[in-house]
Design goal:
The protein has 68 residues and is an all-alpha fold. The longest helix has 15 residues. The chain has a single domain, classed as 434 Repressor (Amino-terminal Domain). It contains five helices and no strands. The chain is globular and about 25 Å long.
């Protein structure tokens, strides 16, 4: 299985900066804790919908909007 550490590390670091170490960030994204953990650890890439929701939470929605 391919690993996606740069994306995951960025998501993890930005989530910590934005919501602190509150591990309930998954509730705000609508995903399971395991799913967010897998993204953070680079074990899976987020879907477009999850990526958009993460961008909204991280106040980076304009970056996503520019892609589409």
């Amino acid at each position: 299985m391919a690993e996606h550490r740069p994306v995951g590390r960025t998501v993890r670091d930005d989530l910590i900066d934005t919501v602190g170490h509150d591990r309930r960030a998954h509730d705000r994204v609508g995903r399971t804790p395991e799913s967010i953990s897998n993204i953070e650890r680079g074990k899976q890439l987020p879907s477009i919908a999850t990526l958009a929701e993460l961008a909204r939470i991280l106040k980076m929605q304009d970056a996503i909007d520019r892609l589409f």
